[in-house]
Amino acid sequence: MTNSLADMDRSECLFVIGSNTTETHPMIAKRILRAVERGAALIVADPRHIQLARFATVAVRHRPGTDVALLCGLMHLIVRNNWHDQDYIRQRTEGFSSFERVLQNYPPERVAQITGVAVEDLVRMAEIYATRSPAAIYYAMGITQHTTGVDNVKACANLAMLCGNVGIPGGGVNPLRGQNNVQGACDMGGLPNVLPGYQPVGDEQVRSRFEEVWGTRPPGQMGKTIPEMIQGMQEGRIRALYVIGENPRGSEPHLRHLDSALEKLDLLIVQDIFATPTAQKADVVFAASAVAEKDGTFTNTERRCLRVRKAVDPPGEALEDWRILCRLADALGAPQNFEKPEDIFEEIRRVTPSYAGMTYARLGIDGLQWPCRTEDDPGTPILHVGSFARGRGIFHPVAHKEPAECPDDAYPFILSTGRMFAHYHTGTMTRASTHLDREQHTAYVEIHPKDAQTLSIEDGDQVRVSTRRGAVALEARVTNRVRPGMLFMPFHFQEAAANILTNPAADPVAKIPEYKACAAAIEKIMGGETAQERSV
Amino acid sequence: MDTKPFEPKIVAFMCNWCTYGAADLAGVSRLPYPQNIRPIRVMCSATISPHHILRAFQSGADGVFIGGCHIGDCHYIKGNYMTIKRVAFMEDLLNWFGLEGRLHLEWISSAEAQKFVDVIRRFTEKIRALGPNPIPALLKTPKAIWNGADDEGHCANVA
Amino acid sequence: MKDIVRTWLESGRIDLFLGYRLVDGHPIPHCFSKERLEEVEQLTESLARYPLEKIAHQMLQKDPAVRIGLMARDCTQRSVRVLAAWNQIDMDRIRVLTMSCCPSDAKDKAFCSYLQEPETGPVRKSNGMPSTGDPDDCRVLPAEERLRRWLYEFQKCIKCYGCRDICPVCFCKDCGLEHEDLMDKGVVPPEVPLFHLIRAVHMAGRCVDCGLCEEACPVGIPLRLLYRKVNGIVTDRFGYRVGQTKDQSPFNVLGEFSPLELSSLDD
Amino acid sequence: MDCRLVPSVCSYCGTGCGVLFSVIDGTLVGTYPIKTHPVNEGSLCIKGWNLHEHITSPKRLRNPMIRRNGQLQPVSWDEAIQEAASRLRTVVEEHGPDSVGVLTSAKITNEENYLAQKLARTVIGTNNVDHCARL
């Protein structure tokens, strides 16, 4: 997030796109609803009729995968009506004129045709976003999990810059991160192209600095992303995989493809707190520790680094993850001299400029938001104040593209996947929790009443959802939360794993798979067929 | 739009030992009464908890009727003491909440077929006058302060 | 205050004392014990309230013989009485240390987060139910408007069950709110208004009006107003005041005949 | 009897809500929101309120395991670590460091992520480090 959560109390307009905030980030939805009751405008754009839409000033349900067209349509209207912030554009950005020309391709009538959103709704959305200042954009995986994910994000950034909303309190472009420490994992260099603090692996000077601290020079060649590793496994170029606290056999698209890749490995090491489907395939399993069983830090979506404290010991022989990693490094002949997580944090500070000013004592309970460069730096609640990190903000022209897979006669529905409120990700944690499991015990697929009627499907019926990659059997939930022609499935349930169905087609830059749109078919299961996956 | 005239749906919880007998007797005696009730036989009116009353309204009932034994006649001695406490409480709560006059309790012995018929008729007319249970409409109407989605996926806009 | 707690612990009148201490500037509940007597120096009053009696209840369920001291506001004392009335705790095992809270003419300071204006400033409620403190204030609105406003409030619910989970007097092992036959599961908002009215029914004759539920509610539903109403009905109809006696509420038990009359169809 | 209340952070979504674990006699028994926390200000969602349940679940892994004769069998830490290390070493020797991939996690701490990527980059010698940021 460019801005902080507390900042939401200052926004006059909140534009939520591709985020079912009340279910996936409930404590952020808390602030959104509070802003609405204070009188701020709320714009909601989501293919489903989400709970937030009930409280919106304008809410639209656009066709899945048409975010770029929708956003460009709004920008077209803003420029046409001269609602854009021309001073801001002149002083702080570049590339506006060529971008403006691309916008000409998105007149509201065409956009309405692509997205399924009425022209008058587009006009109202554009007017509210452009004229209520400061205005903030909030998005989540509904924007990013597309083959056009990067374009979607750029379109959001363009919209924010167009109205002068970046770098001001109450504004910004704010992605809501899905995992407790996904921000931290990125910050710590858990990516193939950067070292801790987003320092590129290809930079000689950077590698020299790390060599000074680590005693070993990190390799300079860019590594592989997860989809590339899976491809490498298929081709025999990746022979060993060490998976820590993840369940790719639940979270990756097109699970069959992944399974065949895992089969080819010489060695699979899994470090987890549960016997996940991935752990069941492993050669070596390390029993790890959960959140209350160790000290350390998490970094949340607003870049706030927070202390995690140990409350109990791990069960049985299980060990804290950092101890396991130290022991493994030891056994590989590279002893790590850390006695407690705080020692590791001290080393992190030395190599990561944005964390340099943090200490455990300073973090306390409130935490600190990076960049925090010195011990008297109070942290940075808002990024890009005064100027962008790179100097001027660039308008990147983007164009609408259909999803990689569109509905056809054989697979007439668009299937979208995501989370529901009582469960989390692949369900390994939440389904082990009595209360959460009681709240939602079985997998389900949402279908619109009209489609259900055509296919004689009633609420609670067993149905089979299939795509070109596989099929699963599960319960139908007939509801007008989805658009006609659309299906929605949460992906928390291993016995009817949504990711058997999803399309591994990925964004060319970010490699993020298209979880939010693929072509699917649905049929009612008749008679005594078992609720088992059909082999395709 | 639904243009049929409004016919109230009334869930009627009736004690096996009294009101249900009265309803039976009314039938045998060919005493006509409105077809609007959905009778549910229970072993004692005290088995009706506020949950059941609320569940009935949630499921779209326009009115809820409870029939029990006269005080002193309860097959289980004191069951109907509980019934009246609960109904008195629920009446106060529903009135305050904005669902007035849609819950009614009456003591009807198994011999009082005529009383049963009269009470059902008057309660049905009362509900007919009150109109449909307003909750489903308030949760759906796009004109309400919150926005609802229509079937086409288009959300109505309300300032 | 620190001296009293120290004396109680030293003399063996209590085994443990539940109070607050500051951790990195935040008041956090803490269990003081005889073994770590030096910690009593850190004992502090706290504006932020946690359900200490709920924690004490959990401790007593593990070990019924333990004697616990509690830093208690007025609401804490009421809920201790309610828990005792429903045989959840043994009054003899609890010793309360009264702290200054709800305001009155006799007190010069009040320690209660509920009385503080929220930092974000007064919230303008154009759609929902204004939380005025008196549940009967809304009577000025026509019935349909009252209904509409409550339905608006309930539709915000994200089904966190926080109102139940923080409630010091919610102790049932099986909760009606999670009953499959009673309520649709796995959707938000939960069935409107069923979910909240069922909880309201359960609060009748039991709610101690501490306001923790409303503080914990992420979406600002005026729950305290709702529960005040149901408690008010119990007081009006049965003359019972929660937390003032050791008796169970007559609304919740069969008891002897209560002189209530049927309402007429002609009203 | 011992009772402790330990402030920490929720490990589900990326919001980073402050939670208070209540521990009685060394057992996690409950989760409460931190009332004064800058992120969640005294509220939690359904997952947060039940955070302790997955930690105390009987399904938790209690031992390291090695696959022997097709079955995962509990072993000591020394065995598990030695097995992993020697087989990793073999793969690196035969196919080079870039034949190893390390998936770090968005669920573990910063310190652990840092160690994991340091292990991959300095001990194994590959930049094949990624995690589920995209998922």
From TrEMBL, chain A:
Protein name, entry field: nitrate reductase (cytochrome)
Function, in words: Catalytic subunit of the periplasmic nitrate reductase complex NapAB. Receives electrons from NapB and catalyzes the reduction of nitrate to nitrite.
Domain Molybdopterin oxidoreductase: 1-330
Catalysed reactions, as listed in the record: 2 Fe(II)-[cytochrome] + nitrate + 2 H(+) = 2 Fe(III)-[cytochrome] + nitrite + H2O
Cross-referenced InterPro entries: Asp_de-COase-like_dom_sf, CT_Formate-Dh_H, MoPterin_dinucl-bd_dom, Mopterin_OxRdtase, Prok_molybdopt-oxidoreductase
Keywords, alphabetical: 4Fe-4S, Electron transport, Iron, Iron-sulfur, Metal-binding, Molybdenum, Nitrate assimilation, Oxidoreductase, Periplasm, Signal, Transport
GO biological process, one term: respiratory electron transport chain
Organism (species): Desulfacinum hydrothermale DSM 13146
Gene3D superfamilies assigned to the protein according to its UniProt record, in alphabetical order: 2.40.40.20, 3.40.50.740, Dimethylsulfoxide Reductase, domain 2
Domain Molybdopterin dinucleotide-binding: 413-519
Assigned EC number: 1.9.6.1
Gene Ontology annotations for the cellular component aspect, listed alphabetically: membrane
GO molecular function: 4 iron, 4 sulfur cluster binding; metal ion binding; molybdopterin cofactor binding; NADH dehydrogenase activity; nitrate reductase (cytochrome) activity
Cofactor(s) needed for function: [4Fe-4S] cluster; Mo-bis(molybdopterin guanine dinucleotide)
TrEMBL record, chain B:
Any GO MF annotation of the entry: iron-sulfur cluster binding
Keyword Iron listed: yes
Pfam families recorded: FlpD
Keyword Iron-sulfur on entry: yes
Domain of life assignment: Bacteria
UniProt keywords, alphabetically: Iron, Iron-sulfur, Metal-binding, Oxidoreductase
Limits of the F420-non-reducing hydrogenase iron-sulfur subunit D domain: 10-131
InterPro entries: MvhD/FlpD
Name listed for the protein in its UniProt record: F420-non-reducing hydrogenase subunit D
Organism: Desulfacinum hydrothermale DSM 13146
TrEMBL record, chain C:
Listed GO MF terms: iron-sulfur cluster binding; metal ion binding
UniProt xrefs under Gene3D superfamilies: Alpha-helical ferredoxin
Family annotation (SUPFAM superfamilies): alpha-helical ferredoxin
InterPro entries, A to Z: 4Fe4S_Fe-S-bd, 4Fe4S_Fe_S_CS, Helical_ferredxn
UniProt entry keywords in alphabetical sequence: Iron, Iron-sulfur, Metal-binding
Residue ranges constituting the 4Fe-4S ferredoxin-type domain according to the UniProt record: 198-228
Protein name: 4Fe-4S dicluster domain-containing protein
Organism: Desulfacinum hydrothermale DSM 13146
Automatic annotation (TrEMBL), chain D:
GO molecular function annotation: 4 iron, 4 sulfur cluster binding; metal ion binding; NADH dehydrogenase activity
UniProtKB keywords: 4Fe-4S, Iron, Iron-sulfur, Metal-binding, Oxidoreductase
4Fe-4S Mo/W bis-MGD-type domain segment(s): 3-59
InterPro entries: Mopterin_OxRdtase, Mopterin_OxRdtase_4Fe-4S_dom, Prok_molybdopt-oxidoreductase
GO biological process: respiratory electron transport chain
Protein's UniProt keywords contain Oxidoreductase: yes
Full protein name: Molybdopterin oxidoreductase Fe4S4 domain-containing protein
